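Hi R.,

Here's the chain you asked about this morning:
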Amino acid sequence: MKGLPNTTKFLWFATVAVVGCAGARPTAPAPAPAPAPGVVPFSTDSINSAIVAQGVTRRYLHGPAGPWAVHVLDVDLTQCYSAVAVKGADGAAGRMRTSTMLGNLAASRTVVGGVNADFFSLASGAPTGALVSNGRVITGPHTQPVLAFDSAGSAHAVVLRANGSVTIGGVQRDFHSWNHADPAGLAWYDAAWGRTMDTATSAIEVVLDGRDPSRVVSIDTTNAGAPIPANGGVLIAGRNADTTVRAMLLALRVGDTLRIALSLAPFHPRDAVGGRPMLVRDSAVVAEVETEGQASFRLRNPRTAAGIARNGKRLILVVVDGRQPGYSDGMTLRETADLLLALGARDAINLDGGGSSAMVYADPAAAGGLRVANRPSDPTGERSVGDALGIVKGCGGR
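And the predicted structure, written out as tokens:
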């Protein structure tokens, strides 16, 4: 890269030609890397590119001005790849390293890479936003955006909404929390969340068996957390729900029946992971990058982000190392958004960062066939996280 001006530099990647010798068997051409972006918004002193698999390119960029160490996994989803949401436990709770989750997935799927995903509760490991895995809603949506994949495998950055209703004695009540707490209203929890409810002071938990209709098994007003039936669920009125809603549940008796209806809008994803905030929308940096969270959240930190291009058919996963002076300071949300734009994203979403940031890619020379690309910032190394996003071989979904 010597000789280029010390401003924004073009990214150049070498192509390797395979030349056949006289009399040698013809050799298939080497797989081509994903299209290189035109420019990045900082000068670079190191750029490397490698083919992980046909349609999957790994890149490393280092910018001395930050300094920034940037890891990119560029995936052409049309080359028979799918993105899958991965949880390292049976239910919403629990934490596991990204590399371990993807290593476990590799026992049954061909994994080419992946990154850590949503923010999560340090106490329980439950993701704070939506987690949908193979159509199963493990944690429901709230108000934050998600990276979602439809039944054809195309990527979308959307805000999902849960639409639910309960009908008791011909009277219908709507609610909007599915495997997600609503202290001021009704919420529905099913077995995808886990085996028991979390403790909840002053909540009313109606345990229900079966669906359409559901039969009341018990009504629990203790704070111990009710069990969740495998073929039913728990309808819960939060401690701040209005008195009419609470009275409606308290009036139920064991053996009563009611009907629960649930859906997600604008569509029910095959897989989805949460994040915040949106970084790029319609090829423009969004205002949230200047206002999201407390001031420390917007400083330079390790980052994980996902960009979408080519109408959802190209996925750009990025991890920026940080908190390591002399190697990489990390990026602000604005800097991360500018980077995703330069890499070609039309839409982009911020995922969990800090010590959680981790990128994994397939490497036959690595133990287990997977290698961590970046340098996680925690002194103890890669952190256990709530969920991950894996890229696997497979066309149009699972």
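The longest helix spans residues 333-342.

Let me know if you need anything else.
M.
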